[in-house]
Amino acid sequence: MRRRRSIAVVGGAVGGLAAATEFRRLGDDVTLYERQRYDEKRVNCGEAMTAASGIPLEKTAENGFLNPVPSFRVAVRGDETVIGSGTFPARDAYITDRNLVERRWAAWLADRGVDVRANHGVSKAEFRRLGGEYDLLVDATGQPSLTSKVRAATDEYAGRMVALNADVTGDFSALFPHSRIVFEGYLGYEWLFPKTETRANVGVGWHEGDVPDDYFAAFRAACERNDWPKPDRSRTNVAVIPRGPSLDPARIYRPENNVVRVGDAAGIANRFTGKGISQAIHSASLLAECVAAGELDEYPDRLHRGMRAEYLLSSLVTTVLDEGRTDLLADLLSAASGIDIEAIDRKPYRALIRLLSHPSLAGRLLSISAVRTSVWRALRDDWEYDRTN
Ligand SMILES: Cc1cc2nc3c(=O)[nH]c(=O)nc-3n(C[C@H](O)[C@H](O)[C@H](O)COP(=O)(O)OP(=O)(O)OC[C@H]3O[C@@H](n4cnc5c(N)ncnc54)[C@H](O)[C@@H]3O)c2cc1C
């Protein structure tokens, strides 16, 4: 019989909770350290959870899964009017009270023998010490990760996106239970994710270069354009999201001694949309699979190899918007309409194949030199796209 491994997971949000779940299932001894208390944890997120079946809780409102959202309706707005749209079904997605989901998930783990230590922020010195005490130390502390702080290398998470979001109340019965995402002429997007017919998470994200001077005024203006309730300043969260590390094989994070990163700590949230919950869950399950097979060293390459198509698709869309081609984005959306929202990230080759089945659209895309450059770089594993060149 194999010896039970001792696993420390630092960071108890979705990535850490998923890692603790996977290692507990493998029969290992797991200790989970979370800086915040679960009953007053502040989460800064749109709270749309895709790949929800990876979460070992019953999908009830009591567990925080408020709206089993059937689809995301995505629109592109030109100067004044909507110039294109697509509907993306969501077979395994919920608009959640994420705080509640994480609290229930941590309790579920504690019931199954995981040593959950909430309200325990791990310092850099303790992190180094834990590395010597456990067989494996999983860094799930988000961006910038504790590993990068210990190594004084937080600049690994270069680039940024700024996102604002807030819970609002209003009458969402015309949209509920569906969700809305709107692209305009800037690099980023706006969302309205209804939790119930009268409560929703609204938000907006801008990529570097398109970030307005007055975030809050721009957020309210975006809500007004969409006819959504205007958020309260006191209820608005502001997040600055580093872009995360590159897929460049020379910069992929290797397990350092026995320390390995999952979720945002591994820099794997989608570069264009900022969506990262299913990516975090996926990375945790891939890590456990590699460890169980005695192939920890394989984990970073397998993780990043699996993400190449997602990166290619997101850099393509980013380039199209960056070029101000909302007309092309509108056509891209209608071409991709009908593909499951999660498949856009996890099986992006479906969207790429769909694109190839519209040769004139593919031709129009490739007639833009920035798009050709972006595809060429992607094919050469050169992911350092930079708006200035
Ligand atoms: C505004 C906004 C909206 C978003 N909306 C969505 C969305 O709708 N859907 C989606 O899929 N993704 C969304 N994302 C992305 C998503 O939130 C992240 O990708 C996801 O939270 C990553 O999970 P994680 O567990 O890796 O890291 P995090 O969620 O960052 O969690 C890290 C955890 O580690 C803990 N921690 C940190 N340091 C320490 C320490 N020293 N000791 C102990 N614990 C520590 C923190 O308290 C935290 O609980 C959004 C992001 C933003 C900013």
UniProtKB/TrEMBL annotation:
InterPro entries: FAD/NAD-bd_sf (IPR036188), Geranylgeranyl_reductase (IPR050407)
Top-rank taxon, per record: Archaea
The name this protein goes by in its record: Digeranylgeranylglycerophospholipid reductase
